[in-house]
Amino acid sequence: MTGDSLNIVIIGLTITSSWGNGHATTYRGLVRELSRLGHKVLFLEQDAEWYASNRDMPKPPFGVTKLYEDRIDLKSRFTEQVRTADMVVVGSYVQDGIAIGEWVCKTARGATGFYDIDTPVTLSKLRRGQNDYLSKELIAKYDLYLSFTGGPTLRLLEREYGARMARALYCSFDPEIYFPEAQRKLWDLGYMGTYSEDRQPTVDRLLVDPARRAAKLKFVVAGPQYPESIRWPKNVRRINHLSPREHRKFYNSQRFTLNVTRKDMVAAGYSPSVRLFEAAACATPIISDSWRGLEEFFIPGEEILIAKSAEDTWRFLGMAEDERRDLVKRSRNRVMLEHTAKHRAIELESYTREAMAAAVV
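-> structure tokens emitted (361 positions)
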């Protein structure tokens, strides 16, 4: 390490392709802001066929990105970089993640960390013995466990899984991409998300049922993998896929947007979706289901609207325009002050120094 600059290596799922995953946008904002803070960042990504065919940022203009063929290629070309880094981070869902993590923990002279962008899913897989990128034994070898989920899960990771230091590193948004735009409102309520069997009943209750009752209002559901058997009301438009570059326009085209949380995330609590921060940054009011810890990110009734029934959604859609504007002003201010990619980079910098100090002791 030279002066206050850190040398960081991240082995992550992908930074070059945002197709079908939420990892790339997270890593892009984080690496860019770490670089702006003066740190040296090397991102290592496996050259997987799926992402190779769908790269929307093949050469990120921040940090250094290198592709590797497989675990053997990774070790043969990047052992020295891993050995000499101040911090080496391995991300969730990395192929051969357990073997790569074991190698990193044996090789690195600096601190090591695991970045879990899927914490509730990861722990569920561990409980079922079906996790191929992390093991309980490996958790105890990392110096730092960075989690998309906070709250009691952090204590669980330390107490029951042996994590040396568990810290929340929540998702974030990029204010250079997500911001308000003067645009005609095409829909009264929209929802964006890949089809999920456990989420669909809530989508039906909070969007589809209100749409059936309000033929004059317009609704939209964007996302892939919805069964053809679903019968959408005529006033619900279906969009199969939206690329990340289209998300800002999508949010700005809605009077309200709906957030629905996966079952594992609801059970864990303290697991904000990046869609919450992106929508708030675009000054789009959010109607959300409820989960533990939500109040740590937004004040219910003042910065976000909590719906349990179709009647709640219907009532919120009738909100006066001045009240709607006041709500989104507060929610946008909140995320700008607490949840940008720069905030996460500063947090990671702090956690890295904390892990390095603990390793010395």
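The longest helix spans residues 341-360.
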